[in-house]
Amino acid sequence: MIDTEKLLKGIVNFRNGDFETHKQLFNELKDNQKPHTLFITCSDSRIDPSMITGTLPGELFIVRNVANIVPPYRETTEYVSTTSAIEYAVQMLGVENIIVCGHSNCGGCSASLNAPHKLEELPHTKKWLELMESVRNRVLTEFPEDEPRVREWMMEQINVVEQLRHLMTYPYIYEKVMGRQLLLSGWHYMIETGEVFIYDRQVGEFRLANGSETGY
Q1: pLDDT for residue 215 is more than 70
Q2: What is the per-residue pLDDT for 211?
Q3: Which residues are annotated as a binding site for Zn(2+)?
Q4: What is the DSSP string of 27-57?
Q5: Please, are residues 125 and 107 in contact by the beta-carbon 8 Å criterion?
Q6: Which of 6, 56, 82, 138 has a Cα-to-Cα distance from 91 of 20 to 30 A?
Q7: Are strands 37-42 and 97-103 parallel, antiparallel or unpaired?
Q8: 144 by DSSP, 3-state: which?
């Protein structure tokens, strides 16, 4: 109940504080939105996209799921949350950027890499993480068992790159990227330091953000 009370107090504080500060902005946003960026990240409670990027309401269209995964494109009649959100952001809202943001100490990456047996009681999570199987196999093959921290780091980073590849399987994304109407970028956020490493496609590695990065 203490946490619930904190949330309720937060509502009041927001209305009297931040809302009043940005009252004109919220008034402008009341009828429509025009975000410039689709931000795909993990559901992890330690990740705050707006805080990391210094953005205001209306700037980011945010998609969150376990381990910031992008399912490869396929036509289906199933209910597909992440795929439909990507479609809406790109086709309806016309975002100009897509960022896939992974992070340090990712539980989904760790479970896939180190303890898949622990997912037996989480059948839907286990099924979801099958989308990372190729990443897991690559990490287990290319990086030594006696360097678990390196494996975890690379699992998180390679997973981001894999999701960028998945995005390029979406026909409308491929077309817009090739036409320079859409920019893709991969980030790796370090929770403990606040640093963000951005994938440099030209050299095939992540580099500490310094303000001069570009994407696909």
Answers
A1: no
A2: 67
A3: 42, 44, 103, 106
A4: HHHSS----SEEEEEE--TT--HHHHHT--T
A5: no
A6: 56
A7: parallel
A8: coil
Question: Contact at 8 Å (CB) between 169 and 73?
Answer: yes
Q: What is the pLDDT of residues 71-113, one digit of tens each?
A: 999 999 999 999 999 999 999 999 999 999 999 999 999 999 9
Q: Which residue has the tokens 């990240």?
A: 41
Tokens describing residue 206: 């992540």
Question: Residue 80 carries which DSSP code?
Answer: -
Helix, strand, coil percent values for the chain (each to nearest 5): 50, 15, 35
**If you average pLDDT over residues 179-208, what whole number do you get?**
97
Binding residues: 42, 44, 103, 106
pLDDT tens per residue across span 15-45: 999 999 999 999 999 999 999 999 999 999 9
Rounded Cα–Cα distance for residues 113 and 128 (Å): 14
Considering only the C-alpha atoms of the chain, give the largest distance between any 2 of them, rounded to a whole number of Å: 56
Question: Which residue has tokens 């975002």?
Answer: 95
Residue 180, phi-psi category: left (phi > 0), alpha (psi -120 to 50), beta (remainder):
left
CA dihedral 94, 42, 192, 151 (to 10 degrees): -120
